[in-house]
Specification:
With 406 residues, the protein is mainly β. The protein has two domains: 313 residues, Neuraminidase (6 Propeller), CATH 2.120.10; 80 residues, Macroglobulin (MG2) domain (Immunoglobulin-like, Sandwich), CATH 2.60.40.1930. It is built from one helix and 37 strands. The N and C termini lie far apart (47 Å).
Length: 406
């Protein structure tokens, strides 16, 4: 592209003020006036290497770098040599292969592989033996989750991996056309994509896995277009797609969820929102060319420190827990809290383990209990934010609740 004399061959970097191509070894190497019309759609940075997944069978006029290339030691080099699209999927410090291909390094290699020792390598007991489409990966509550278009272990479009050698279904999986994005937040795994009503679709384009069953998204908003991206930042969960609130015809493209409220940000977006990125407390988002606010700009950003929500609605406290019956909810008070939290146990439960997870799904506190009726947790060491407290008793979940630490 051309902009202020900058020629970016499908890849450039942004420092918060200016675009640059310095250090990128001339991108895809195109010398054509307008560059190759084949997009770069997957980027990852690990140590001193940049990985680029793209939709061309060559890069720098070199067919050995078709569909995937890596920039190391100042030059572009072949990466895995897939025979189709390759997504670089990062989760919990590990990087996996996604996309649509069934060949790596010149050999038949369908499914998911992990980048280890400078190569994509086979994962123990990986269950795919034929071509599949894997679109996203996420880490939540000690497991890795992969979603896309596939069926395995009796489960559609999503599968879990324990990080070592065991693969597990999530019920019968998800219906609809495809999963595009997965993200864990508190006690729930959020799964979005293009999910039209039908078998195994709990709610259009976006639904929830609570660890045991599939649930619909919150009733307080209607998801009317495909979910493009789901990410956690600053203790909040962000969704891009297309959304309507009851009684309001304004279509929003961006939602923020803090564990208590769903808020629309960024104003009216007739074509919805796209893929998101966070940098220096700003939210960047890919935009369709006909976005009414930033016509043919393709990328826009919001200052998260100053943005004022367009509309907010309260989500019923613990509504996920209530919809995932038979498990009762815990009562917690005061909420919000500062130094201590009192947890009232469900009737008949007198012992177990209390687990506290932060907004990223990380375990931050674990405490055994042996009492009658209630117990108290110290929250002094917790950072301000939204948390989920879960009670496990006799190996099963016996209750859960959310609370906010000031």
């Amino acid at each position: 592209m051309f902009q202020d004399s900058l020629r970016a061959n499908n890849i450039a970097w942004w420092d918060g003020v200016n675009w640059s191509i310095e250090g990128l070894a001339n991108g895809n190497g195109s010398t054509f006036q307008f560059g190759y019309h084949s997009p770069t759609f997957s980027l990852a940075i690990r140590s001193d290497t940049i990985f680029a997944g793209h939709l061309s069978d060559y890069w720098h006029e070199d067919s050995s770098m078709g569909f995937a290339a890596m920039l190391a030691d100042g030059s572009w080099q072949p990466c895995a040599q897939p025979n189709g699209s390759l997504y670089f999927l990062e989760a919990n410090g590990r990087m996996f292969s996604g996309g649509v291909h069934d060949e790596l390094y010149g050999s038949y290699a369908p499914g998911i592989h992990e980048w280890v020792g400078g190569l994509f390598q086979t994962m123990p007991n990986m269950p795919f033996t034929d071509l599949v489409q894997v679109n996203d990966a996420a880490y939540w509550h000690g497991k890795y989750y992969f979603g896309g278009v596939f069926q395995t272990l009796g489960c559609n479009k999503i599968i879990a991996f324990d990080g070592v050698d065991q693969w597990m279904p999530l019920g019968t999986g998800v219906g609809g056309s495809f999963i595009r994005s997965i993200c864990g937040y508190g006690d729930s795994l959020y799964v979005g994509g293009y999910l039209q009503p039908g078998p195994d679709v709990q709610s259009r384009h976006l639904q929830i896995w609570d660890g045991q069953s599939w649930l619909p998204f919150f009733d307080e908003v209607a998801v009317v277009g495909q979910t493009m991206d789901i990410q956690v930042y600053g203790g909040n969960l962000y969704f891009s797609g297309a959304y309507l609130f009851p009684g309001d015809t304004t279509q929003y493209g961006l939602l923020r969820y803090d564990g208590h409220q769903l808020c629309a940000l960024g104003g009216y977006m007739i074509h919805g929102g796209g893929v998101m990125a966070f940098f220096q407390d700003d939210l960047y988002m890919a935009l369709p060319p006909l976005n009414t606010q930033l016509y043919y700009e393709f990328i826009g950003f919001l200052d998260l420190e100053t943005v004022v929500p367009d509309r907010c609605v309260a989500v019923t406290p613990n509504s996920i827990g209530e919809r995932s019956t038979p498990h009762p909810t815990l009562r917690v008070y005061p909420n919000p809290t500062v130094d201590a939290l009192t947890v009232q146990l469900p009737v008949g439960v007198h012992a177990g383990q209390l687990l506290v997870h932060d907004g990223l799904g990380r375990l931050v506190l674990s405490e055994p209990i042996q009492c009658t009726g209630w117990t108290e947790l110290s929250t002094t060491a917790l950072a301000p934010g939204t948390y989920t407290v879960t009670l496990n008793s006799d190996g099963v979940r016996a209750g859960m609740a959310r609370f906010t630490k000031f």
